[in-house]
Amino acid sequence: MGYKTDIEIAQECELKDIREIAAKFGLKEEDLELYGKYKAKLDYNLLNTTKGSGNKAKLILTTAINPTPAGEGKSTTTVGVADALSLLGKNTAVALREPSLGPVFGVKGGAAGGGYAQVVPMEDINLHFTGDFHAIGAANNLLAAMVDNHIYQGNELDIDPRRITWHRAVDMNDRQLRNAVDGLGGTSQGYVREDHWDITVASEVMAVFCLATSITDLKERLARIVIGYSRSKKPITAGDLHAEGAMAALLKDALKPNLVQTLEGTPAFVHGGPFANIAHGCNSVLATKMAMHFADYVVTEAGFGADLGAEKFMDIKCRLAGLKPDAVIIVATIKALKYNGGVPKADVQKPNLEALEKGLPNLLKHVENIKNVFGIPAVVALNKFVTDTPEEIALVEKKCAELGVNVKLSEVWEFGGKGGIELAKEVVKLCEEPSELHYAYELDQPIEEKIECIAKKVYGADGVDFTDAAKKEIKNLTALGYDNIPVCMAKTQYSLTDNEKILGRPTGFRITVRDITLSAGAGFIVALTGSIMKMPGLPKVPAAEKIDVDESGKITGLF
Which residue from 279, 285, 387, 506 has the least number of CB within 10 angstroms? Predict the structure, then answer.
């Protein structure tokens, strides 16, 4: 078949009315809040009704090797497997994150799947969608405004302007805003201070939003957000500023999960979107539970490689939400594995068994982590390309078989659900295997030990080095009683190490934690490593330069 762009495929699809999609779950129009013909929100209170199966679904997590410029196809596989399960007669739903405008206009492009395995309407999902991210940004910035206003109006809480930890947010890659000085212009314009912006998906409000289980839980989490410290070093919270009610009011409608569909009509919940390299990288708990309430099989994904997204899915999301995956799909491509083996991107299509063997350990490390660290059965989904040789495929199968894991070829990008039937059958089989979820660390371990457990068990590091700033903040957070919560590692997605240039499965390395920050509302501590930052920048040629819209409203240039 002639290959078309993702947006061309999506625009040629004849979408079903969203009411028809919802009817697959026994839902009627009165159960939906319609956003046009093809999008709807579902009230979270539906989780308390007898409609649906009641969270008895099998939960399948899709993860991947460390991402490379050669590509892996994690979202595409997630959607394609769900469509394959639907073709097998299973009552299936997808649960995905919403794309951030930063990557859409930056370098990565959209995040709605690809080829013939997409969620649609693709343009809406990749752009404003139902306005959730705008609401999250508004709630974040309301709190920021209330912090500075409190200082301006007399500072009753004695907030130390030098120790404000709360940042403003915008859902755009804008390096110019990483560090700034605001409040300029005289005494009536505010208090002059150093300020910072994060991309919205790195905001703690996003993490809170994605981990909240109800409006009440949302307000309680928002109230616990620490915005900074007083001059006497006491933590000041959003609750101290009485901001949580107004913030929750801004998020009230956004908190309702979004229902859309795949190209083949499988229901898809697309909701929330924290990055996995700087946040916990999973769609909202409410969307996952909603999907599990109405479907028998739910396919979800966690961001980037398994060392980031899958680890956080297990150690943060599953732990805090009481979830457990029944099976894990680990996505890889032969091209990406050869890139891990030292082959330049321009040459990854050429047969090269030697480079493939050198790159395979990256995949095998992720397989070992899922099976041996977390205790969940797994299958490797090998996204097939026409350049893959039988010998290369056989080598991947042989190495994975030595770890007791099967490899199934995936051709969902080209053929949709039909291209994932064998993979879906393997997933169904794995879901019936007994398993018990293990965490990489225990909550009662000291902060340093938790970080070391992740680094040693999941990354394969020899140990962890902490800067003086990190040691100081660990001591501070421990004294304040924040030591018994999970750790969210902020680390490059491109390597098992904290150096993005080190590929494959390195040994003999250490992880350096340069700083520690607290996300008390989300309920975790963030450990910052390497040069990772919470506000990306645009590349030399941003994707935005290729995006356009014509007089009929048709959008072009989205991947």
Answer: 387
Q: Which of 74, 289, 317, 514 is catalytic?
A: 74
Single out the catalytic residue among 209, 304, 313, 415: 304
78 is annotated as an active-site residue: no
User: Cβ atoms within 10 A of the Cβ of 180, count?
Assistant: 12
Active-site annotation holds for 413? yes
Q: Which of 62, 63, 68, 76 is catalytic?
A: 76
Q: Is 97 a catalytic residue?
A: yes
Residue 262 phi, psi (nearest 5): -85, 175
Q: Tell me the mean pLDDT in the region 331-343.
A: 94
The model's pLDDT over 469-487, given as tens digits with 9 standing for 90+, comes to 999 999 999 999 999 999 9
Asked about 108 being catalytic, the answer comes back as: yes
Q: Is 368 helix (H, G, I), strand (E, B) or coil?
A: helix
> Cα-flanking dihedrals φ and ψ of residue 513, to 5°?
-95, 115
3-state secondary structure of 175: helix
Q: Which of 25, 166, 374, 413 is catalytic?
A: 413
| Terminal Cα-to-Cα distance of the chain (whole angstroms) | 19
Residue-wise pLDDT tens digits, 352-384:
999 999 999 999 999 999 999 999 999 999 999
324 touches 57 (CB < 8 A): no
